[in-house]
Amino acid sequence: MRYVSTRGGVPPVGFADAMIAGLAPDGGLYVPQELPAIDLAEIRSWSTLCYADLATEVISRFAGDMDRAVVAAACRQAYSAEVFGSTEVVPAVALMDDTWLLRLSNGPTLAFKDMAMQLLGRLFDAELARRGERLLVVGATSGDTGSSAEHAMIGRKNISVVMLSPLGRVSPFQAAQMYSIDEPNIVNLAIDGVFDEAQDLVKAVNADAAFKAAHSIGAVNSINWARVAAQIVYYVWAWLRLAPEPDGEIQMAVPTGNFGNIYAGTVARRLGLPIRFILATNENDVLDEFFRTGVYRVRSKDQVAVTSSPSMDIAKASNFERFVFDLHGGDGAAVSRLWSQLHETGQFDLSSLSAFNSLSDWMVSGSSVHDNRVETIRRIAVGDGVLVDPHTADGIFVGQQLRRPGPLVCLETAQPAKFGATIIEALGQDPPRPDGLVGLESLPQHVTVIDADLAAVRSQVEALAARQGG
């Protein structure tokens, strides 16, 4: 299995190299040169496997240059009852109206990002030990990626983390999960700006080949293909358990801002799973606009709304580049031209592309606003006795608006404890939180506020690298 850049400007590499590098040297994202050959009969044969063993089957097909025993050990360690509270790892909860909630937030930071990060930390560890190397991860977060990545990297002697988050644009709980960490290998930077500026800074750091090489810089954002591979697993898991018949289609509603979670689902579909997707955004509806019109139009930082589902307050969806690459049949030159146009004009139009016009057969989209979220949280709590967070509420609301007859599977993104203000508005009470996280916001905070400036980020990276001996 070899990996190429979405912009077609670099030679193919193996899975391990793509994982360590994160971003391709030409600024593109790594994708498989071709997908592994798996048919539905083989996938059905995995139906009795536990989650860890299913993950081994799926991920080993994408990680052909890593020892299968290493992948299996990482999967067993990551997807354990100790980490996720149950060997089931991803339970499905029945709601009214033939709707299912796929619970993805049972990990240590109460967010679906743990599903990939817990594995990624272990794969990093194994590969870096094999190479005798260190890695300094530079990442950006709109809320959950930061804490999930940091908690996955605590105590890993060969990995350091610099995490950028937008100042005042994540929930207090999300901020405290990151900033309360006091570890020598982890640095939190609060950027005086929006998430997209933080994400651009991460890409700029990675684009400087000399700087990246000098400090052994990698990435944990969903620009890293290993995260996408890990997320494919729960789509297979859900289909094996919830499809209405042996080869039947299921509908999956996915709240998304950066297009990473749902992109993993599209890869699962390309492997042969019959899935119809319902993409849900909040008021920051860049992706919804594209799937309705064919026009991908990024927003300026002043146009990014601050919402009650803050992890989706994103104006540029990084993983969307992989999807555009797929729409163009793997034509990296075409993607490179489109991203040059995007840089110059802020938009491009694919409405005349035949591959775009066939999307409505299996991908539809919609958006929701604050009142929709609050009403959905209240309705699900009263009708089903289940508490959901505002991002998951976006997915449920849009999914139930756009579903066809048949089962609807809504992907959970986080536990409600992370978004207390919205839960209080909906239900008049604080959401419960695990004992170990009571009083989290009152702990000492370890964060440095900086301008959205590349030189400032580079300085922080250099300082951490010097302390860590890298």
Could you provide a short overview of the structure?
The chain has 470 residues and is α/β, with parallel strands linked by helices. It is 44% helix and 15% strand.
Structural class: alpha/beta
Percentage of β-strand residues: 5-15%
User: What's the CATH topology name of the domain at 92-100 and 231-424?
Assistant: Rossmann fold
The CATH architecture of the domain at 92-100 and 231-424 is 3-Layer(aba) Sandwich
Number of strands: 15
Describe the global form.
Answer: globular
The number of helical segments is: 20
> How is the biggest beta sheet arranged?
6 strands, mixed
Please render the helix and strand layout as text.
Blueprint: E1 3-5, H1 15-21, E2 30-32, H2 40-44, H3 51-62, H4 68-78, H5 81-84, E3 92-95, E4 99-102, H6 114-131, E5 135-140, H7 144-153, E6 159-166, H8 172-179, E7 186-192, H9 195-207, H10 209-215, E8 217-218, H11 225-242, E9 250-255, H12 260-270, E10 275-281, H13 286-293, E11 295-297, H14 320-327, H15 332-345, E12 347-349, H16 354-357, E13 363-367, H17 370-384, H18 390-402, E14 408-411, H19 420-427, E15 448-451, H20 454-468
Helix pairs in contact: 3-4, 3-11, 4-6, 6-7, 6-11, 7-8, 11-12, 17-18, 17-19
